[in-house]
Amino acid sequence: MLAVRDQRDRKAFGRLYDHYAPRLKGFVMRSGLPAAQAEEVVQDVMLTIWHKAALFDPHRAQVSAWVYQITRNRTIDMIRKERRPVPEEIEQDNAVAPDDAGQILAVEQETRYLAQALAGLKPGQRDAIEKAYLGELTHQELSTQTGLPLGTIKSRIRLGLKRLRHELKGMR
C-alpha cells in the first residue's frame, strides 16, 4: 500500500487488487448483494483505493482495516440506493375515462398543489428532490455534481420528502 501511496506503483496496486478483490466480493455478497452488484462495489472500492491512496496513514489503521472500511461504506451506499424512498404515488381512479374533464381538472389541481408544496421547501431540499426524482440522479451523482457530502444530500432529500408528505396529506 505504501508503494501505491508514495510512488503510484501499478504492480503493487495489482498485487493489492489480486489479494483483496475476491475477499471483498465475498464480504459484500455476505451483506446481501448479488454477485454482479458485489463486483461493481469491489471495482468502485479498488478505484477509490487508487485515487485516495494518499490518504492512507499506516499509523491510524492497517491496510486491511482501511480497505474493508471503504468497502463497508460503499456496500451500505449501494444497499441504500436500492431502497431509497420514492415519492408516494397518488391513487388513480381507473373507472374514470382519461379524457374526463373532471379528471383533467383534478390532475391540474394536484399539479398545482405539488408545485406549491415544492416551492415551500428550502431551496437545497427542493433542488435535491427535483434532481433525484425528476432528473433521475443517484444520491452519489448529486453529491458529485453539487460538491456536497453524500450525507447532506440524503438528509435534504429525506427531510424534503417528509415535509412534502405532510403538506400533501390533505390532498388525498
UniProtKB/TrEMBL annotation:
The keyword Nuclease does not apply. Residues 112-164 form the RNA polymerase sigma factor 70 region 4 type domain. Residues 16-84 form the RNA polymerase sigma-70 region domain. It holds the Pfam family Sigma70_r4_2. Keywords: Sigma factor, Transcription, Transcription regulation. PANTHER family: RNA POLYMERASE ECF-TYPE SIGMA FACTO (PTHR43133), RNA POLYMERASE SIGMA FACTOR SIGZ (PTHR43133:SF62). Belongs to the sigma-70 factor family. ECF subfamily. This is RNA polymerase sigma factor.
